[in-house]
């Protein structure tokens, strides 16, 4: 676990320094961005092999923000739109990614409960976006540092390829501070 924590920390620093809008006009920034996202998706795949098998991938990550995508291909339901389990997959993993990279590897995210509100069927790939402001990050860290854990909520907004809002997720998370000992703190 110590090696994985080190890799997560280094990857977070690498990705946070990348320009999410970098294109081939800035080849070094583009390389930093694309290699960083590739590393993030590889870490996810090693930790949760189910995710890459279904085509899940993080497509944007910066401090306080994550955007992920799941393809329709291979994830269709019985009437041709995105399967409910695929919505759940694309809504659940980014919350952990966001907290791991914003709080750091000293905090372990745990999903306690999630609800999904389906607004309309998605007949295309779906992206989800999550945000976590610095004030909330600081409050989560402070509580986890003093008690060993902290609870918080994340809302994920899901869109189809046309930008239509197709679903919303509400995730109730808890983080645990690794190595916390109430007697020492």
From TrEMBL:
It comes from the Bacteria. CDD domains: PaaI_thioesterase. Gene3D superfamilies: Hotdog Thioesterase. It holds the Pfam family DUF4442. This is DUF4442 domain-containing protein.
